[in-house]
């Protein structure tokens, strides 16, 4: 009895239904009066607002099951004597489940039409809001080429110009309403920001350009890849990816626009398989006519690892970003497999290309960390021959160690590769089209997605994924690498062309040291103004928080 009462007391905290309470010294589980039932309905409505607003498959199954139950009750009672009972199925389901009439009615209609249940579509208040335009890789490349052409011609480019380009090319409609146009402009600005573009100076005109650090990484990668091809070195590309249970590729499937019986698009993604692998380019030292199977571009099957996301990595829960299913320890073990495979095949002196994932760049375990105490930092500086003074603060010690680490300490996988006679190269941010293995993933996932239907099980997905990798031909891999190399050559031509434009601008006196200093001062003034605005907005935000007037994020 004491346990029962303590559970009741615990149930009085936030999140407990108001109808579950102590009444006259005992747990109240009897009938509910009108006031108590109204309080429960308000609580239930509040709980649903705090949780995801998208109906899951299980939620829609509950709605359909309740309606099916009442329809069966009507059949059972039809043969009984007396006046037949009247049933309002949607209203009954609404009252039992406390859902809206439209939701209950639409769920049954969908089931009657398709004899299956899918979750709510993305459109509308019960689903995820869609963007104003699809942010595809093709659009990013299209924008990049258009911006390059304007830069070569010396045109100034701002977000309004990008909006006009999107409207004229059919990405967005032509807007006549000022409000709609302003909303579209904001969407374009968010898109440019997500790509890493920022306002900058080129040729004396304010325009949109990529961040300098991204440009430096891009140029370094392109020049190193061009050099590697000139040296006739083989290149290994590695990457991780995933595929969901309900992933499908039906973009080219036939349908009748006038047939309203079609099943709504399945949005529930389900569980997922994560996988990692490496591909290798053909051997340029061997003439194409003389190349055997081992000299051709291909997937390295020994490096392929497929596992269910959320189950393999020490019971780690499935994260929103599939990269969370990998860690440095796993990747270092996988890297050993890759290096052993290359050694067994007699492949030496390769370039190993990978992206900038955090677990790719993990440092040795004994590397000093910012979280260390001051005494440990002093000891680390002394061990590495760095100057130490009694007056040094912890921040100064860490700054000294951080610079030393950046200059002398290599990531674990980089050291592993160099010890085996290979070289690691990092792909630049926002340039996934330079990674041919991304195109390989698209081919593999496309093969799996085109076979999908509503009867596909998770086991079927694994079987089809294995088959897609097994049937991946060297010709397909070679085509993916050739496509990425064509993009690489195109970017290299653009870089050299922009260098020529800058050289001409310098000769014409467009770039002047004093002008550049003035521009820097102006930019600093703008930064100060922006900081003041940020402070004002932060103060306003704090006031709003004190008043409790902030809204939940969708």
UniProtKB/TrEMBL annotation:
All residue ranges annotated as the Tc1-like transposase DDE domain in the record: 322-450
Composition bias, kind Acidic residues: at what positions? 507-529, 537-554
Residues covered by region (Disordered): 1-25, 507-554
| Top-level lineage group | Eukaryota
Q: Polar residues: which segments have biased composition?
A: 1-15
Mind listing the GO molecular function terms for this protein? nucleic acid binding
Q: What is this protein called?
A: Tc1-like transposase DDE domain-containing protein
